[in-house]
Specification:
The protein is α+β, with helices and mostly antiparallel strands. The protein folds into 2 domains: 75 residues, Glutaredoxin (3-Layer(aba) Sandwich), CATH 3.40.30; 115 residues, Up-down Bundle (Glutathione S-transferase Yfyf (Class Pi), Chain A, domain 2). Helices cover 55% and strands 8% of the residues. A 4-stranded mixed sheet has the order 2-1-3-4, with helices on one face. Helix 4 packs antiparallel against helix 5, helix 4 runs parallel beside helix 6 and helix 6 crosses helix 7. The protein is globular, with a radius of gyration of 17 Å. It starts with a strand and ends in a 5-residue tail after the last helix. The structure holds glutathione (GSH). Glutathione binds next to helix 1 and helix 3.
Length: 210
């Protein structure tokens, strides 16, 4: 019998919860181990050998080790041939990947300062002007998502729920839960309600702010 996959990372982490939500969508079992802030150290030689960035999550599937949460989600969907979550057709797949990459490289940097200031209460992030600019930029990026969702009327890449919605669903939750002045984004709001119909969202999408 195959060993269950191991997921190293605290379940309060937004990036760990992407992976947990993906496992739930796939109906695949896993064993999660608490690593990261407040739990087992990610800076031991053993952990750094698994992930030289000293971050969570890490996936261990038998002898195969993987880090970067979006890549882990894609690996799991491919392994289970879950073509609903990650289409096999090059264009369908590329669209899912495009929005996942956008989340990682464009959207994530926009929320970092406001999140560190308002949720983590980081003393190094308490400059009012930088915070205001950060909130504005975060809203601008969410406006790009709003325009897209207005166009699809459902999920990020169209009528079907995909891995892009796992990743962006968590991002929308983070935006909603951080007390900045939120732009009025009706399509994002409707999307957020739509996601709440999914069990995976209620389990992993809407908690774990730290
Ligand atoms: N690009 C990485 C980012 C991972 C990351 O930032 N992880 C955070 C938690 S969300 C972390 O490890 N923080 C330190 C800790 O928890 O000890 C990914 O998507 O996996």
């Amino acid at each position: 019998m195959d060993m269950p996959i191991r997921i190293l990372g605290r379940d309060t982490s937004i990036n760990v919860r992407k992976v947990l939500w993906t496992c739930h969508e796939l109906g695949t079992g896993f064993v999660r181990e608490d690593y990261g802030n407040g739990f087992a150290s990610t800076h031991t030689a053993t952990y750094l050998n698994l992930n030289p960035n000293g971050q969570v999550p890490v996936l261990i599937d038998d002898t195969f080790v993987l880090w970067e949460s979006n890549t882990i989600c894609r690996y799991l969907a491919s392994k289970h041939a879950a073509t609903g979550l990650l289409p096999a057709h090059p264009r369908g797949r590329a669209q899912v990947e495009q929005w996942m990459d956008w989340q990682a490289t464009e959207l994530n940097p926009a929320w970092r300062y406001p999140f560190m200031a308002l949720i983590r209460q980081d003393p190094a992030c308490q400059d009012a002007d930088t915070l205001a600019a950060g909130g504005k930029e975060w809203n601008r990026m969410m406006g790009i998502l709003d325009t897209r969702l207005t166009h699809t009327g459902a999920f990020v890449t169209g009528d079907e729920f995909t891995l892009a919605d796992v990743v962006l669903g968590l991002s929308v939750n983070r935006w909603k839960m951080t007390p900045i002045s939120h732009a009025d984004l009706p399509a994002v709001e409707a999307y957020y309600q739509r996601l709440q119909q999914r069990e995976g969202f209620t389990l992993y999408g809407a908690n774990g702010m730290p």
